[in-house]
Amino acid sequence: METLTQSPSPSPNRRSLIYYQISVLLLTYSAYASFHASRKPPSIVKPALGPDPSDGTGGWPPFDGFRGPHRLGELDLAFLSSYSAGMYFAGHAGDRLDLRLLLSAGMLFSGASTIAFGLGFFFKIHRLTFFVAVQVFAGLFNSIGWPCVVSVVGNWFGRSRRGLIMGVWSSHTSIGNILGSVMASSVLEFGWGWSFMLPGLFIVVVGVFVWGFLVVDPREVGFGAPEAVTEIEMNHGGGGSGGCSGECLGLGDGEEMGLLESSSKAEVDSVKAIGFFEAWRLPGVAAFALCLFFSKLVAFTFLYWLPFYIRHTAVAGVHLSQKTAGMLSTIFDLGGVLGGISAGFLSDGINARAVTSIIFLVCSIPVLIIYRIYGSISMSFNISLMFLSGYFVNGPYSLITTAVATDLGTQDSVKGNSRALATVTAIIDATGSVGATLGPLLTGYISTRGWNSVFFMLVSANSLAIIFLIHLAKAEITSKLNETRLVS
């Protein structure tokens, strides 16, 4: 590795850099996809746990009967509330501990929790407290994942084309949902316990690979401080002006040299990790965190309740089977893959994160209304509108949790403090996760009164998400107009 740092020829550096960047992207992508795969089984098995939609009978005690949907919503509350609380602590831990060990430990224990839930089927457990306790532990261990993977990716990629790179990379959320849906649905007919066993084993296996092969920092392989990675990118065509500038977010002007700006490892280690309340006061953090609160409420309501909604809503007059409903729900996630990539690409192109988020949020409102009204007419209508719903709902959610969180965690206001990224990322995603907790819980209660009320809640949430970004969007537009005047 000595030659990588000192050789005057840029070619070895460039080839080696690409190798490590691809490796980091693939491992972190697989890691977080496996996290989401392990979260998907509860939504897939909801139709099996709850009462039959046709006559209200059947189900797995204590989730049978009229109060079954309420208790299923309480399961979501147990997972997501502990996930939200754990996220705040995980951000601090990510800024202080070895990210590779922390991430792999979170994956292994998350897999164990998923498997433990499935064991309830094999041991015929019918106590609500058991399932709630398992979900609490699963939420805590799952909260470790996001701050870790974002920080690792942030170490390896500078600001240039961050929106597009992270837009593509953030598709791991939807791909993980699809993998989890396929694995859980494919074995549901053999008993709902198997729907937890496969995703649980999957995240454990991926966690072993992460522990063995992930390189979390360029200095570990001889590149020096992470700023050197950005310098190599810029000298070999990797630069560009993509991404929202600090000015348009109301931030500083100097954040153009990558995610970490310390000149040596000793200097980085001497920097004190940013405080919780200090991170909240960074420009733009509160606005995007509150926007994510409502947009993630919508996204996670679909994540946890879409198979249940499909199963309980006749398409062309026919109620679909549990397996078919689970498989069909993956269409929403396929739309989310394209939506996340499109949002990242557009935000780089127009250099405005808040404006891009608002565009997607505004478009999602009529799409959700149309999906509720016309989605049951035919299978083709259902699939098309579900795809569009996923596209517009997941676009801003993916953008804010990746590129925006990284922008805010590395802005000029932190003065080169590389240890702010995981904390800021955790604050934004944890605040969003509080909304994610609220949405599925409310759906469990509201759905018993009718699905029109649920969709009214979703449309209202996206409308509120737009409100919190309006002043940032105005700042971005004003910045663009000023740039245009200067050029002319």
TrEMBL record:
Compartmental location: Membrane
Entry's Gene Ontology molecular function annotations: transmembrane transporter activity
Keywords, comma-separated and alphabetical: Membrane, Sugar transport, Transmembrane, Transmembrane helix, Transport
InterPro entries given in the database record: MFS, MFS_dom, MFS_trans_sf, Sugar_P_transporter
Membrane-spanning intervals of the chain: 17-35, 101-123, 129-157, 164-184, 196-216, 285-306, 326-347, 354-374, 386-408, 420-442, 454-473
Organism of derivation: Dioscorea zingiberensis
Listed GO biological process terms: phosphate ion homeostasis
Domain named Major facilitator superfamily (MFS) profile: residues: 16-477
Gene3D superfamilies the UniProt entry points to: MFS general substrate transporter like domains
Name of the protein: Major facilitator superfamily (MFS) profile domain-containing protein
Main location: membrane
Any one GO cellular component localisation term in the record: endoplasmic reticulum membrane
Domain of life where this protein originates: Eukaryota
Membrane topology: Multi-pass membrane protein
Entry similarity comment: Belongs to the major facilitator superfamily. Organophosphate:Pi antiporter (OPA) (TC 2.A.1.4) family.
